Amino acid sequence: MNFNNACGLARIAVASAGRQLRSRSSLVARNQPHQQIQRKSFSSGAVEPKEAPKVEPISAANLSSRTHAPNNLEKRMLVFTKKYKTVEEIPSYINQDVMERCRNQVRIKIANYMMIATAIGCIVMIFLGKQAQERGETVQKMNLDWHKEYNEKAAQEDAAAKK
Q: Per residue in 58-84, pLDDT tens?
């Protein structure tokens, strides 16, 4: 095996990661299309040797064929991300990669909406805190008032229990 064959085998092995690996001789044969590989047949001629079944390589089109059946939430997500106009238009099976992209878009949109809601909530609380400060309401004053009411109730209950 020379250097070019070894490099070709390495390229094929890397490109076919995740696929079923073929025998080494078929990899060499794929790498050298112009040369014929001589195969020796040891049969007596009466029985034909069985040919190995042809294995189609797994392609991206085969992996992402319509194999995912979306549920009601996923159908709403597809409409929310504007992949389809209505829930009724969604087919019973869709591509898995379309559903994954849709989930990612929904996740990003929800995170953005939550960030906006948090910012609005912070602004509202700042506004309400400034109004309370102008009225003279403080946490310390509220705490003193609560203790005063609690002590008055406790004194009234003690007086009622003594009578």
A: 555 555 577 889 999 999 999 999 999
Is the model's pTM score more than 0.85?
no
Read off the tokens for 2: 């020379």
Structural tokens at position 53: 């079944």
d(CA 116, CA 114): 5
Contact present, 104 and 84 (Cβ < 8 Å): no
Would residue 2 count as lying in a domain? yes
Which residue range is the domain that position 20 belongs to?
1-36
What's the domain count of the chain? 2
Distance, first Cα to last Cα, the chain: 111
- Please answer whether residues 69 and 91 qualify as being in contact, where contact means their C-beta atoms are separated by less than 8 angstroms: no
3-state secondary structure of 81: coil
Structure-block tokens of residue 34: 């112009």
Answer whether residue 23 is part of any domain. yes
Tokens found for residue 100: 């994954």
For residue 5, give every residue at least 6 positions away whose Cβ sits within 8 Å of its Cβ, in sequence order, or none: 28, 31, 32
Q: How many CB atoms lie within 10 A of CB 78?
A: 22
